[in-house]
Amino acid sequence: MLGLELVVALGVAVLVSGLIAQRFRVAPPVALLACGVLLGFVPAVLDVHLPSEVVLLLFLPALLYWESLTTSLREIRRNLRGIVLVSTLLVVATAGAVAVTVHWLGMPWGPAWVLGAAVAPTDATAVGVLARMLPRRFITTLRAESLVNDGTALVIFALAVGVTVGQEQLGAVRVGGLFLLAYAGGIAAGVVTAAVTIPIRRRLDDPLLANVAMILTPFVAFLLAEAIQASGVLAVVTVGLIMSQVAPRILSAATRQVSQAFWGLATFILNGALFVLVGLESHAAVRGLASASLVRGLIAVALVCVVLVVVRIVFLFVSVYVIRAVDRRPSQRLRRVSHRSRIVSGLAGFRGAVSLAAALAVPETIAGGAAFPDRDLIVFVTAGVIIVTLVTQGIALPSVVRWAHLPEDTAMVEERQLAQRTATEEALAAMPMVAAELGTDPDVVDRLDREYRKHLHTLHSNGEDADDEPALRHDQHYTALRLALLARKRATVVRLRDENQIDDTVLRQIQSRLDIEEVRLSERELVD
Questions:
Q1: pLDDT at 322
Q2: How many CB atoms lie within 10 A of CB 148?
Q3: Residue 1 has what pLDDT?
Q4: Closest Cα to residue 134, out of 85, 75, 214, 219?
Q5: Phi-psi region of 337 (alpha: psi -120 to 50; beta: other; left: phi over 0)
Q6: How large is the average pLDDT for residues 432-457?
Q7: 0.85 surpassed by pTM
Q8: Contact predicate 318/401, CB 8 Å
Q9: Hey, what long-range contacts does 370-377 have (CB within 8 A, 24 or more apart)?
Q10: Fewer CB within 10 Å of terminal CB in the chain, N or C?
């Protein structure tokens, strides 16, 4: 029954944490971690452990795929150089700095590099949740870094573990080969998965079957990459970015509606459960240490957290001056940001699922059967670093963002208005030809033409004296009235069902149409 009890406990924890986060304006991961820690005191779940395979094979592909689908490829291209630097050189520098720090505390070099590689990569899901208040460029860069740097960290981790257990010999050719296999193999696996998936998705008209194919896609990419010992993370990211560009042309509206609803709920639950399990795992990490090792572990957690932030901030400052010295193009000057902005980026490097999965994947023994040196300490420090960075940096980030006075990001609003205006104008221009092809009644054409022109006038008015513009005010009143009348229609349909004049099936059919219209009007109201 423990499995069922754990599922219920995780569900309740996610629900309660969500309510607490909304009520007290706490970052959701912080509330989820606290709930996981409290859950660890329940006797029934004391022996629960989070296998690394669960994170790597269940949580990670789904979460990374959705992050890749919903990120901006255009912004990634614009900031590609910076993303490559922080997802490769910064990861190596961070792992090395952490290794030096914990070796100074008495940990052997092999386990020290294992710990450094485990805590080096930032977490895409944590960044997506905790960094929402940042401008779009910052969020895209942070998310792209988090999506890519796992590949670098996991190669370093595999080398460090291999050397420690006596199964790996360091050498420039060997290290270069592993990095090449991880990156090139992972990207190739993602490209192959996309090439196979796209023709299948084109032929699936049923929204449910299309979404089944969508769910399978990241797991197939991950499996293919793992089969050739490449980076499953990069495979999932690659196929996700490709599908983000192709999907708008090959998916139907019904398929997109189902996928948005499913992935929104699924990623919320997976994220929540993962953070709760991290908090729960901290209990096992504490129990695995003796009292003397616990003090040493706490000191290591504090020092590693400081090292992670300091190395990240120093790297961001040093790299930008190197880039300025090398690249003096005018376009490069336009990308420059303030020093305060770099402090914000430095504090936004949250650790999460990949770090914990790596620490839990450390083998129990080395060659000869002896215990892996300081394995319990590695797990403890990794869990502690995840919790401390999420809590302290998550709490401090909003204040630092206000201190930094980041420029307001209005590009998205302006681009959305441009897209809506252009789409409406071109639809108006094409209306006579389309109507002639369809043989539409002239009265219908005139009615739709008036509606489109009224909507276009509202779009042109939006943002210019919005409170005084009659067209915009008229549109707002129109939307509010439509929403109020939809509520009346829904109440009437429910009453007819209660009076046994219509069947429940009829109620659901009509309610579905009313819901679609209500969601459309509500989103339009938010946008306007």
A1: 80
A2: 25
A3: 43
A4: 75
A5: beta
A6: 86
A7: no
A8: no
A9: 372/111, 372/164, 372/165, 373/107, 373/108, 373/110, 373/111, 373/164, 374/107, 374/108, 374/111, 375/111, 376/285, 376/288, 376/289, 376/293, 377/107, 377/111, 377/289, 377/293, 377/296, 377/297, 377/300
A10: N
Distance CA 46, CA 43 (A): 5
Residues 110-162 pLDDT 10s: 899 999 999 999 887 777 666 666 777 778 788 888 888 888 888 888 888 88
What is the maximum alpha-carbon separation in the chain? 87
pLDDT digits (tens, 9 = 90+) for 6-46: 788 888 889 998 898 888 877 788 888 888 888 877 777 76
Count the residues in the chain. 528
pLDDT band at 466 (very low <50, low <70, confident <90, very high): very low
SS (H, E, C) 76-103: HHHCHHHHHHHHHHHHHHHHHHHHHHHH
Cα-Cα-Cα-Cα torsion 142, 143, 145, 149, nearest 10 degrees, comes to 140
CA angle 390, 80, 83 (to 5 degrees): 25
Backbone angles phi, psi at 371, to 5 degrees: -70, 145
Check if the beta carbon of residue 110 is closer than 8 Å to that of residue 164. Answer: yes
Residue given tokens 């009292």 in the structure block: 291
Tokens representing residue 95 in the block: 């792992």
pLDDT at 52: 66
Tokens of 379: 């797990």
